[in-house]
Amino acid sequence: MTDTTLSPASARSAGVENTHSLVRTLNWTHAFWFAAGTPALVLFSVGAIAATAGNVSPLVWTISILFGFVQAFTYAEISSMYPHKSGGASVYGALAWVRYGKMLGPISVWSNWFSWSPVLAIGTGLGAGYILNLFFTADHWIQTWQITLLNLDFLKQGLSLRINSVFVLGWVLVLAVFCVQHRGVLKAANLQRILAITALAPLILIGLLPIFSGNISLENYLPFVPLAHDAAGAPVSGSWDMAGWTVFAGALFIAGWSTYAFETAVCYTREFRNPGTDTPRALISAGLLCVFVFSLVPLAFQGSLGLNGMLDPGIYSGMGVADAMAGMIGGGTVVNKILVVMLILALLLTVSMSMAGSARTLYQGSIDGWLPRYLSRVNSHGAPVAAMWTDLGFNMLLLMMSDYVFLLAIANVNYMIFNFLNLQSGWLHRVDRPDTPRPYRAPTSVLATGAVLGFVNLLLLGMGANIWGSGTLAAGFAVALMILPVFAFRHYVVDGGKFPKQTFEDFAGADETEVKTRAGILPYLTLLAGGSVIAFGYYIAVY
After folding, report:
1. How far apart are CA 249 and CA 533, in angstroms?
2. pTM of the model
3. All structural domains of the chain with their residue ranges
4. Sign of the C-alpha dihedral computed for residues 323, 326, 327 and 331 taken in this order
5. CATH C-level class of 28-540
6. Helices marked H in 54-149 — which ranges?
């Protein structure tokens, strides 16, 4: 389909805002409320991390959110350089790498999208499970019926594609979120604010009440060592040997998928009224909220449940987390059910956040020539409807997966790839585009720390990905490479080997040949070093 919309530059010169492109209706508080769905991501993996890492899981979450907060300053800087783009940090990072390898840009954009689109499936799947648990016992036929479509044991034992009540109800939930998003970002942002206030309340209560009420036992943190298993597979206290550090790395790896996620606040740069100032404000304010929630909730969760409680299968899968959290604050059956309903709203908040952000990544990737052209189509409300339908179709398949933790782990392999490329893009932009206006400029020391953390994340990837299934690392990289033939067709066949003019409109020239490179071989050495760090982490891991 041919894109007949005006470019943002053309719309500005005409003095109008095109109703068939993304429109500037937001300020930083709107993006903050979208990103406020991030703390609810703790529900996705707090059980899996606790059941895998054991008593050290609160330390895992605290370290991870501090990593994410430092990294956010790099994203704030690079996003402020592109006031006319949507889609998030991967779009801005891709432009730093494109002159050093055309294939690096689409990998960054695709990996970012693939890492966050599954929030739709995982969030609505967990929400459906919470709803079913409210009304039916675990052995009720509505909870137990299942049609297995495909066995995936070659990836992980017991993994399959299936249709059951969780799939059906999850699909209803994701369609409801789609209907809201279809009406435009401003209406969705207003609803998001209401959902956020309702949904964050129980998380804050869960984090604070057990601490102040004295319902936390220090014994539940001891011995403060990673979890291990004996020869028979029974859980035992481990030690800080290489096997213990591997478990710790695996927990840090999976936690990053949740704790780094508030960078979604930069997805709305193209829709901010004042992008230069709104973007960093939204990102940093959302980060502070996440530091609070991601530090306290896992601490209270561990201190209240203890190791035996965390090893319940429902805690690992996530389906039993809401009931466990409700029990942490007491209050009886009615209060518990109210809290579970509020946690369901928290999950829908994350789904709405993900649909808004991931659809804009697809949209901008299409505008910039990385992804298929049809994804740039928007409706009369300014919503990227083609990208949203693509998200829906993709997640219909993902909802069929029987193990959401494994799906999350594969998504996070891609997230770490994107994360590395974008943290390095901070210094690469500084070298190649020193004179490009930066309404927000991160301290150089913080930018350098973010680049180092990019390598730390790759070490966690190499060491810890396969903790979540022996095929996780390989499957994640296979997914990342799937975009290459798609980009090759778009770029070389559809676009004749040239990028659209909009790709570089925020630079002095609108032609890719006018974007100079000054970094020499440093980007290639960086990629080589990154690959070596992954290999080293994989080599030293002990499972």
Report:
1. 14
2. 0.87
3. 28-540
4. negative
5. mainly alpha
6. 57-80, 89-97, 104-116, 119-135, 141-144
